[in-house]
Amino acid sequence: MQCSLLLEQLIEALRCLPGVGPKTAQRMAFQLLLRNRERGKHLAKTLLDAMQDIKHCQKCRTFSEHPLCKLCQTTARDSTLLCIVESPADIFAIEQMGNYRGFYFVLMGHLSPLDGIGPNEIGIPQLSLFLSDENLKEIIVATNPTVEGEATAHYLSELIKPYPIKVTRIRHGVPLGGELEYIDSGTLAHAFAGRDVI
Ligand code: ZN
Fold it and tell me: What is the pLDDT along the chain (198 residues), one digit of tens a residue?
């Protein structure tokens, strides 16, 4: 029996974070209450604002609190290149690599018919807007090298075939089954440099 219901609720709420079990959640709650109340309040406010205001960019589907994300708003990038990724975390990984200057499209997952995730769920209708842009010369399909990621890449290459756009896939150095966000920048840069036409 705990002495505070609110404390119990805080610990339970913290457990929604990935990798946080009951002990860690308890430690986090005590730490915030004992030493970091101001930062705890700041965390609560930021969390609330983010949960309420962050939606999806209308163009590339990544997270954004504005109709268009910062990347889609910029004119200082290469509009002949589009990189298709599974998640916003992949954009972070590729931006960290530092040598890709094109735009992105985020599927927010991969095709998974058994789970009811089809073309509509991965934003194919929105992707069509990019496909009809005549500036676009190459699409780099950077879905994860997992079975689902490969199947999604195959679907995308078939979809894009009728358009005068080169479709490439990053290959070398990305470990099979590995996810882009966990790959170091050097390996990722190598994978980008060694992409194949599919
Ligand atoms: Zn965007």
Answer: 568 999 999 999 999 999 999 999 999 999 999 999 999 999 999 999 999 999 999 999 999 999 999 999 998 999 999 999 999 999 998 998 888 999 999 999 999 989 999 999 999 999 988 999 999 999 999 998 888 999 999 999 999 999 999 999 886 555 555 577 777 777 777 777 777 787
Q: Which domain holds residue 78?
A: 63-169
Number of domains in the chain: 1
What CATH number did the domain enclosing 152 receive?
3.40.1360.10
Rounded to the nearest whole angstrom, what is the distance from the C-alpha of residue 68 to the centroid of ligand 1? 5
159 Cα–ligand 1 center, Å = 21
- Which residues neighbour ligand 1 (ion) by CB within 5 Å? 57, 59-60, 69, 72
Asked whether residue 128 is domain-assigned, the answer is yes
Measure 10 CA to ligand 1 centroid, in angstroms: 34
Q: How far is the centre of ligand 1, averaged over its atoms, from the C-alpha of 57 (Å)?
A: 5
Q: Do the Cβ atoms of 43 and 29 come closer than 8 Å?
A: no
Identify whether 9 is part of a domain.
no
Distance 78 CA to ligand 1 centre (A): 14
CA distance 8 to 36: 18
